[in-house]
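Teaching assistant here, posting this on the class forum so everyone can see the example we discussed in section. The complex has two components, and the goal was to see what a joint structure prediction looks like when all of them are supplied at once.
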Amino acid sequence: MPKKYIDLDTLKYILYDVRKLEDLLTRERFEDHDMESLDLFIESAKEFSDRELYPYLKEMDETPAHHKDGTVMVHKQVDVMMKKGGELGIISASFDYDAGGMQIPFMAHQAAVYIMDAANNHLPGYVGLTQGAAELIIEFGNKTLNETYVPNMLSGAWGGTMCLTEPQAGSSLSDIVTKATPTTDGFYKISGQKIFISGGDHQYADNIVHLVLARIEGAPQGTKGISLFVVPKNRPKADGTLEYNDVMTVADFQKMGQRGYCTTHLGFGDTDDCRGWLVGDENKGLAQMFLMMNAARIAVGRGAAAITMAAYRTSLQYANERPQGRKLTSTGKKNLTEKQSLIIEHPDVRRMLLLQKSIAEGSLSLVLLASKYHDIIHASSDKEEKEKYNLLLEMVIPIVKTFPSEAGSVSVNNGLQVLGGYGFCTDFTLQQYYRDIRISALYEGTTGIQSQDLLGRKVTLQNGKALELLAAEMMQTITQASQHPELAPYAKELASTLKLSQEILQKLMPFAMKGDYERYLSDANLFMEYMSLVVLSWLWLEMGVNAKETLASGDLKYDLNFYESKIHTMKFYFKYELPKTSSLATSLMSDEVLTIKQDKEYIL
Amino acid sequence: MPKKYIDLDTLKYILYDVRKLEDLLTRERFEDHDMESLDLFIESAKEFSDRELYPYLKEMDETPAHHKDGTVMVHKQVDVMMKKGGELGIISASFDYDAGGMQIPFMAHQAAVYIMDAANNHLPGYVGLTQGAAELIIEFGNKTLNETYVPNMLSGAWGGTMCLTEPQAGSSLSDIVTKATPTTDGFYKISGQKIFISGGDHQYADNIVHLVLARIEGAPQGTKGISLFVVPKNRPKADGTLEYNDVMTVADFQKMGQRGYCTTHLGFGDTDDCRGWLVGDENKGLAQMFLMMNAARIAVGRGAAAITMAAYRTSLQYANERPQGRKLTSTGKKNLTEKQSLIIEHPDVRRMLLLQKSIAEGSLSLVLLASKYHDIIHASSDKEEKEKYNLLLEMVIPIVKTFPSEAGSVSVNNGLQVLGGYGFCTDFTLQQYYRDIRISALYEGTTGIQSQDLLGRKVTLQNGKALELLAAEMMQTITQASQHPELAPYAKELASTLKLSQEILQKLMPFAMKGDYERYLSDANLFMEYMSLVVLSWLWLEMGVNAKETLASGDLKYDLNFYESKIHTMKFYFKYELPKTSSLATSLMSDEVLTIKQDKEYIL
């Protein structure tokens, strides 16, 4: 196994120096923390990952979770992840003190889990979903629900899930049919099927607490008639013992990747004895669930960014060790008396490595940006500030979910290619990362759904205010960069690409205004690609400015090459990736309509 | 399992109507064949694939080839593939009569094997390599070698392989060290290790005939000192029985995909009793091996094109059956009283399907184009014509190898996405196609190597004559298309992209001329992408012209929608794919040099 699955210097550089974690600590919410304690928290996550997560990465792929005798059998490290994760505060660290948390900045928490994702992406989901489920109970549940469930979840003794998807509905939540029948005993009878439930059951949990979307009999049609319920696998009785709650584990989906992270099919109320407890008000379930959705989508992006990083580090190590071929001489031939070059010396290999580096580090920067917005929203008492960062967060969420997933897949693909034939062999982890990361573009809303969200909802939010705010953030970096002669050309390029995005919207908006939403959204996916390139170029320019100014200051935490490599990678992104916006613009602004179904079927 | 893994109508349309197989039959070499007999040959391949290949696709993935007791255990269908493949003439069909073949056009043969690849890509390689190995013996071996080995290979009783790669050398064939020591008994003693040997051993072959590159003691350095040997696993004795030839099966590489097709590690001469027989002249081994390389590279492209097609058909069937979500109404909301739409009705799903269709059918057209060039070269007695098609074939070979592999991967990725979460589950074959096709960009020279071949060797061939010839072919189609008002704008676009490729070369050539080959070739990979887009757009324009003219003629073999769908897909390719050339051109013509190693290392 390679020595390094992440570059801790780069993580700390982006978190501390670029994203400026310390700035948050002046806020009341975080006043008990200092940089030293947060650094310790991150180091402890690294130490835990080195010891308990990374060594089992391959094993978890080779011995997948599977259904057996009515439960799901998972790898023993799931137990370690849950219990030690609970101990380390990985489940509760960012929660309020009075909810049992430590009020550490979400950014620092995300950085810690990012390390774990990079070490072994099959494991952190178990605690992540438990955290999300607990947060829903804390936020919307009554005192009894809180007391009954939350402590055991935060300690990692009980797992938690979010149950949205049903076989007949998929992403179309309006079509949820799981039924909740009121009783006079304070609970509802639940019946229905849920599929693709991550962490839905395993032999190490005494209990799993499912947060289930269901429809109370007689509720309005569509998403307005969906309520949220706590439905435990085993219901706690008055004496503290557990009683089976008629939640059946029907199956565990076998997957191409992330095979250690179980994906279950659950049946509720097969013998009409499944009880659910309403969380918050009737028919508010979807809105409540979606309050957690932003964090869930950041988590998907974070996981993908981490796999991308691990794959990059692995292929980089290989490229630095493997000799093959020779440099071309000025006659176009090779000098065979020379010993073979390391493959990192070949331009095409360097191109693949720089592509990976730009995507891996850029994705990390993006994930931490969204996390910082999340922190400001939760720490601010200023209504206007809260509103501003809320809009900024809403704007970037679909991109944070999508870019690391999609570009990350491309990046890992290049990492695999760096290893040549060995990349395809199971002796090396590149092929596993390639399989593992592929689920990210499907989790928590596919790329298609994120793209519709971006163009259909976020761009139009408050008449375009969210987009304006984001553009203003970018302009600030552009202005800064323009003051450095070396960076000014890149700043100019980004500005013109940003301007072109406005022209694209001016071309598309009239379709929405005249009610032709299908046409307006038909190329939403391309618009997502366009905006992702713009945002990532912005974040690289921001990193370039930071590196440049640090170099000028002479106050270097890392060596010279470290900062220069950031500027170099920024240039790479601008040379090889940003230009893709021009072709996307051509396609987006074309008047040809080819993907909207007409009377005849042309797809044969 | 889905009903259709290929669309036979499209295959026949491209082979018969676009690529005009019948035109070949006027040539002497093919005079015994008519369209009916060739159609029968193709139908028999389909029938065989339906019955013996496709039903085992999933099983072969789930029970991979593996090393056991000194041999490799493979799925029982390998036996069927070899023996029935031999019977059906799949191994020998395109060979000369006097080599035991049927002299059928290579194009028709490739079309037949394409069907088999689409049905089950784990199997045709076994016969393909046997065919290649036999061809080398037929072409360069003496009478004894021919008589001793070829008949058993053509019948499928014995397998064949090509042994190039060694652990320390990888793609760098100059570094081959496998040793051949002359004896006075007419053979050489062989010793060395070969890795990544496809079809290198299995329990169903009485014998495997390895075609091995090795270095005779004292031979010149580099590729000029490599000779070709026949090294059987078991050597035939005078009495016809077989004797073990000290070829040890060391291991079988376990892979992410194409797991039913074994990839072996072989050790030659562990007990100093491995005999090899020289094929042709000393030190000519690499040139001889490369005579087969064009066919091998077409085969890789063909296999990738076939997997792409199978994945497309599978996702198309799913999209036509799966209801989910609803069309947006003019208020931007959905009408919940409507029943759910089929997902094929959503523009984003249609985009993914059309992308797949354009890549799958375009790749097929490309593979058959190269095959036709191959046929003309072999059937022509006109020196000038031979020379022309030789250059055209050389020009397109790296693209035929690369485009179906790289774009095919992207295409299958989109197919998987069409199925949403199910695409990632092992119950569906999309995830398998996604894994299987990934090897194509590595086989027989990676994409990096093909790109160097394209820009470094093919573009400069005879002072650019090969590229000129290809451009002339394109111009012919452009002229034709310009005469149809509906197609003229596309013709114009292709012409200007072709022109831009010249400007790119004018920008790059001076680097080569002043001996800076590293700079000249540093972005060869992007040039490959550029030229692939140009060539594919050309082939789609050609298909558009054919469909248009067929519609005008009124003489339709298929229904109206069939032809209109070809024109529609052509338009799709021009709207969504061809524009990518403009960003590639920007990157290619940039003066920034970022991927050539300087004194400092920036990739950290």
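For the discussion questions: Residues 285-321 of chain B form the longest helix (37 residues). The mean pLDDT of chain B is 96. Think about how each of these relates to the inputs above.
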